Amino acid sequence: QVQLVESGGGSVQPGGSLRLACAYSNFTRHHYGIGWFRQAPGREGKEEREGVSYITWSDGSTTYADSVKGRFTISRDNAKNTVYLQMNNLKVEDTGLYFCAAQIDYRPPLDPYGYLDWGQGTQVTVSS
Predict the structure, then answer these.
(1) pLDDT of 27
(2) What is the CA radius of gyration of the chain?
(3) Which of 3, 22, 33, 50 lies 20 to 30 Å from 80 when distance is taken between CA atoms?
(4) CA–CA distance, 119 with 128 (Å, rounded to integer)
(5) Are strands 82-87 and 72-77 parallel, antiparallel or unpaired?
(6) CB 46 within 8 A of CB 55
(7) Considering the chain, what is the average pLDDT of its residues?
């Protein structure tokens, strides 16, 4: 079972920045990559998790949701077993609980049903 721990969330004003980190362990060759998802306040269940960004394990290719392209950047540090999500020019609608997860099923990368192991989440609040 992959262990994932998110950190770096917080409260910022619109236009601000945050960098989230996802520390992982027990990643295996059966996993395809790591994705970041978010869940808006009041929403429950995996089906309500919106895919934000993804990075492959094999070659570091990245995928972004249209809503965050040009503002968010995903990266990885293999030596530290950590994946980062740099979030710039944050908007109120970026508010939510952000999760990282390990992709185990070969589905579209931002499909939450391709993921089995999830972290506990880190809260991001953007408000003025």
Answers:
(1) 84
(2) 13
(3) 50
(4) 28
(5) antiparallel
(6) no
(7) 95
| Contact predicate 37/48, CB 8 Å | no
DSSP state of 49: P
* Token pair in block for residue 117: 């192991």
Specify the residue for token string 């506990």: 120
**CA 55/CA 62 separation, integer angstroms:** 5
Tell whether the model's pLDDT for residue 99 goes beyond 90. Answer: yes
- Angstrom distance (rounded) from CA 52 to CA 110: 7
Per-residue pLDDT at 29: 81
How far, in Å, CA of 26 to CA of 102, rounded? Answer: 10
User: Cα–Cα distances in Å, from 40 out to 17, 50, 92?
Assistant: 18, 8, 11
Q: What is the mean pLDDT of residues 2-23?
A: 97
- Extract the tokens encoding 89: 């020019």
Residue 61 is encoded by which pair of tokens? 């290719």
How far is it, in rounded angstroms, from Cα 46 to Cα 31? 19
- Measured in residues, the chain has a length of 128
